[in-house]
């Protein structure tokens, strides 16, 4: 009887153990399937995220290409503007030199006309003095002094006018020279600003590219 009981108990124990093992196996399989499904979903999400990042990077690359092309256009426009400014400064320099030469020519002509006028005045004074000396001896000294004073006044007046015009022309010349120097300074400052802006743009692009690679 004890043997039969032991056989019955061992049979039920075996059945229970086999049943428990089957349950463990099923649970393990279900858990493995669940993990596989979760891994697949996680992998799909990562793939989708990577695809989105690739699309974003493509758009960013396209944006960078557009930005670089625009910067190239800006650089080209600035270069053309600098060339035009250089041509303008050169034309102004040539015009200033021509005007200085023209002013010098006018000054020489004016000086010659003053000299001729003074010569004619002196000649007329001599003729007048000779005529007066031949007609009225007693008025000779008085008329001579009056003519001399008049001639000196005329010469002083003409000299003052001439010096005032020379000063005016000299001031205009100095103003033109200062304008040329200012234009040269503005051109240099403009070139330096363009270089700095270009370097800032290049540094910004490098920093953005470095940040992009580091984040990747």
UniProtKB/TrEMBL annotation:
It comes from the Eukaryota. Residues 33-88, 159-193 form a coiled coil. InterPro entries: POC5. Keywords: Cell cycle, Coiled coil, Cytoplasm, Cytoskeleton, Repeat. GO terms for cellular component: centriole; photoreceptor connecting cilium. One of its GO terms (biological process) is eye photoreceptor cell development. Belongs to the POC5 family. Essential for the assembly of the distal half of centrioles, required for centriole elongation. Acts as a negative regulator of centriole elongation. This is Centrosomal protein POC5. It comes from Lanius ludovicianus.
